[in-house]
Amino acid sequence: MRLQGAVAIPIHGAHMALHHTSGLVLGLLLTAIVGPARADILRYQDADGVWHFTDRPGAGAVPIPQAGPAPTKDRDLVAQLADWRGAASGSEPEPGLAVVAVRTSLAEGAGFFCSADGYILTTRHVVRPVGSDVWQHGQAAIAQGQGGLDEMEGQLQEWRSRLRRIDAKMSRVDQAEGPSGVQADGADADSQQGTRAQVARRVTELERLVRDTRRRTRSERLAFDIKGASATLATSVEVRLADQTQLRAQVVAVSQAHDLALLKLAGYRTPSLSPSPEVGLAPGQSVFALGYPEDASAGAAPGLVLRVTPEEVVTSVQLVPGYSGGPLLDASGRVVGVSAVKRVGADEGVYAEGQGIAIPIAVALREFPQLRPRADRTASKR
Asked: Which of 95, 168, 180, 284 keeps 20 to 30 A from 309, CA to CA?
């Protein structure tokens, strides 16, 4: 809904109380109807002291103050994490306190708060892993298990054929006639019986292994498919804070062009790392990545910038699993990228062992207008 025109609220002259009251009620109604749905409802005051409300930016127009209660202690994560870390009140929070672990049914990675109201940047392949390298590795593991099952079934057929040949030979011995023939075949029969017992045991063992492996392979494939569907349809994901608090964050947007996703932990005051798209990176510059390379422990990985393009930052940072989605910072602690670990774009030669690939933070700001300053968002709508 868009509010067209303007509403005037007299605040002086005759019948001021009546006009002020009715105008204020109308203004509050308009604020209640439009304000929460759109954040760009503005007001301005003319030369006669009359307030006007509009959605069209103009000279002197300012946003309507968004009044609301201060965050309660149990929803103020800045204070919670500062208490956990033992930081002094009012001190600058550590960058690592803004980094979270992100978990879905198929993948795990990292993310980081990039605003004080709970927006979290991470990678698409963590939030929507189907089709990603992580998903393909899982598919390959299942295919490898199926290949092992096929090989095992081939071995079973060979041993069954061997057992049938032994049975056929022993059947011919039983049908032989004549004293000398019985003696020779009888001696051979003892050896054949021993051989048959060994082959029969192997057949029984392989039948059990094939049966168990077939059941396990089918179960693993079904579970993998269910997890993939669950991750694809999920509207929220689990995030874990530095103090091990587990919360659910809403999936706000998933980029189709880049390995990026945006989450939000609504209703919380959060620590944040401010994106710094203005920082110019150059080869040889020191950078470091933050993430969760281990299940419960945050980590940092240093390195140097190797190459910079508008679409990627190639570094020597050793990005092991758990760093995907975390921030890449320069030596001053400014966020310059989002660690992706996997290939960025269609160039299959980009990713190699020993190279860490990050997406420039400017790309994330272009993809997600929610992260741009209010003035930039307003200008883009005009």
From this structure: 95
Distances (CA, A) of 379 to 31, 277, 292: 21, 18, 37
pLDDT band (50, 70, 90) for residue 3: very low
The chain-wide mean pLDDT, for the chain, equals 76
The span from the CA of 282 to the CA of 307, in Å, is 7
Predicted confidence band at 48 (pLDDT cuts at 50, 70, 90)? low
How far is the C-alpha of 181 from the C-alpha of 95, rounded, in Å? 91
Sequence-distant (6+) residues with CB within 8 A of 372 are 365, 380
Q: Where are the domains of the chain?
A: 7-63, 133-232
- CB-based contact 27:41 (threshold 8 Å): no
Beta bridge partners of 237: 249
pLDDT at residue 349 in the model: 46
174's CB contacts (< 8 A; 6+ apart) are none
| Mean of pLDDT values over 224-239 | 81
For the sheet containing 42-45, what is the strand order? 7-9, 51-54, 42-45, 62-63
